[in-house]
Amino acid sequence: MRRYGSAVLLLLTGGAVLRISLFSDLYLRYVQAALRPYLVISGSLLMLLGVVAAVRGMSHRDHEEEHEDHEEEEEAHSHGGPRIAWLLTLPALALLLFPPPALGSYSAGREQAQLAAQGVGTFPALPAAKVLDISVAQYSSRAIYDTGHSLKGRTVRMTGFVTHGSNGTWYVTRLVVTCCAADATTSKVEIRGTEATDAPQTDTWVTVTGTWLPKGRLGTDGAWPPLLDATTVTQVKQPADPYEKR
């Protein structure tokens, strides 16, 4: 069975990669959509290599010598090489059968607020719409740094997962990625206009509609996190792509 170890590992890993990238959108929990073709190609190559390794293993079995080298066998067993190698199948099986969820409130809670790093200034004009759909990151940037106050008087709508703070405060939160989940940073908006007892549970996904509430001086710690005076809060399903892009 040892001769097929590499083949099994390659097939499991390739199958797991194809499962999350070719046959579902689960890969969006970990990387951006633009990387999907590379995952599909990588998974396909791993499957191909696994088949080649399995065929070679069968060929070697037919031509195997009757007696194996005793010294080599003892060294392999003494170091536990074959047994340890099989442990490498566990991550592949986990990804194949139980893909980890997207990052959520725990990751967001450990992210430090990044304030005034880009300085204040004017932003491009927002689209004319009765209700403006906007990302949490875009809202945060404009609320904290926009000297033109482009959010003033606008009704906005944003979607994110719920995180909780002290004294009954709660936030609509999104994780922002450049490439993949490993470089994720946090954007969040504190929700006002709803009673603390009505706040959704942590990690619940919601769509919130409301208007901007000015807070603190632009570009300072006092402006973070930005506020939203909510008029409606609606629970929704987690989107297929849970991250916002820079």
From TrEMBL:
The keyword Membrane applies. InterPro entries: DUF1980, DUF1980_C, DUF1980_N, UPF0703_membrane_permease. The chain crosses the membrane at residues 35-55. The keyword DNA damage does not apply. Keywords: Membrane, Transmembrane, Transmembrane helix. Residues 22-111, 142-243 form the DUF1980 domain. It holds the Pfam family DUF1980. PANTHER family: UPF0703 PROTEIN YCGQ. This is TIGR03943 family putative permease subunit.
